[in-house]
Design brief:
By secondary structure, the chain is mainly beta. It is built from one helix and twelve strands; from the N terminus they run αββββββββββββ. A hairpin with an 8-residue loop joins strand 11 and strand 12. The radius of gyration is 18 Å and the shape is globular. The two termini are about 20 Å apart.
C-alpha cells in the first residue's frame, strides 16, 4: 500500500466536492421516489426495514421484473453508508420499463436510521424521487417511515407507512402502508412475505426466497408478486445485490 498525504489545496478541493455532492443529493430529494411507486424502498422488495448499510460499505442492487411477455422493468440501485455519517444511507437508482408506457427513470434516495435495529425496535425515514426521461418531469416521489421489530432471533417484521406521489395517476398524492415478515430458514437462506396497499386501488403482495452466499457479500432473490405496482396482475422478479 502507498501512503499519500493531501496538501492543503487538495484537502479543500475534496471537501468542496463532498459538499457539492451532498448539496445536489439534498436538492434532488426535494422532489423525491424510485423507479416505481410500489418498488420504493428496498430494491426488488416493496417493503424496507429501518436499517442502513454497514458504515464504510456500498451495495449495488440489480433486478429484472417480468409482468408478461410484452412488459417488464430492469433496474440498478447503488447506495452507500459513509463512516462519517453511520446512520445515513445515500443512494440513487435508474430503471428502464418496457412495454406499454415504456420509459427510463432515475433519481436519488436517502435513508436515515433513527433507532438502530440492534435495539429490537428499529425506526427510520426514507425519501426518494424518480425523474422521467420521457416526460422530463418528476414522475414519482415518496417519504416512507419504516419500523422494524425483532420478533425472534430468526424472525423480523417490517412495517412501512408514508406518502407517495405518482404524476400519471388520477390522484397524484396517495397514502401507502405495508408489512413484511423475514424468516431465516437455514444458514444463508431467508423467506420473505409482504403485503401493501395505497389508499386507492387494490392491495398487492409479494413472496420470495433469498440466498446469501459469501458471508453476506452477495444476495440472490427470486420473487413472485401480485399487483406490485398497484395494477399488474402478476410479476416475477430476479434480483442480485453485491456489497463491497
Amino acid at each position: 500500500m502507498f501512503n499519500y498525504s493531501l496538501c492543503p489545496s487538495e484537502v479543500r478541493s475534496v471537501r468542496q466536492l463532498e459538499h457539492l455532492l451532498l448539496q445536489y443529493t439534498v436538492v434532488g430529494l426535494v422532489g423525491l421516489m424510485t423507479i416505481s411507486s410500489a418498488q420504493a424502498a428496498g430494491g426488488a422488495h416493496v417493503i424496507d426495514d429501518a436499517g442502513v448499510e454497514t458504515p464504510g460499505v456500498c451495495h449495488l442492487e440489480t433486478w429484472v421484473s417480468r409482468h408478461n411477455a410484452q412488459s417488464g422493468l430492469a433496474a440498478l440501485a447503488l447506495a452507500c453508508t459513509f463512516e462519517a455519517w453511520p446512520r445515513m444511507e445515500f443512494g440513487g437508482s435508474i430503471g428502464r420499463a418496457w412495454g406499454e408506457g415504456a420509459d427510463t427513470s432515475f433519481g436519488p434516495a436517502l435513508k436515515l436510521n433513527l433507532i438502530p435495529l440492534e435495539t429490537g425496535l428499529g425506526l427510520g425515514v426514507i425519501s426518494s424521487a424518480a425523474w422521467s426521461a420521457g416526460s422530463g418531469q418528476i414522475d414519482a416521489a415518496s417519504v416512507i417511515v419504516p419500523v422494524s421489530l425483532q420478533l425472534h432471533e430468526r424472525v423480523r417484521a417490517n412495517f412501512n407507512a408514508g406518502w407517495l406521489y405518482a404524476r400519471s395517476d388520477a390522484r397524484q398524492n396517495q397514502a401507502f402502508i405495508g408489512a413484511q415478515i423475514e424468516t431465516d430458514i437455514a444458514n444463508g437462506w431467508m423467506l420473505m412475505g409482504e403485503v401493501f396497499t395505497h389508499d386507492i386501488g387494490q392491495p398487492g403482495a409479494q413472496f420470495g426466497l433469498r440466498w446469501s452466499p459469501g458471508q453476506g457479500s452477495v444476495d440472490l432473490d427470486i420473487l413472485s408478486g401480485w399487483r406490485t405496482d398497484g395494477a399488474t396482475p402478476w410479476t416475477v422478479t430476479l434480483g442480485v445485490t453485491i456489497r463491497r
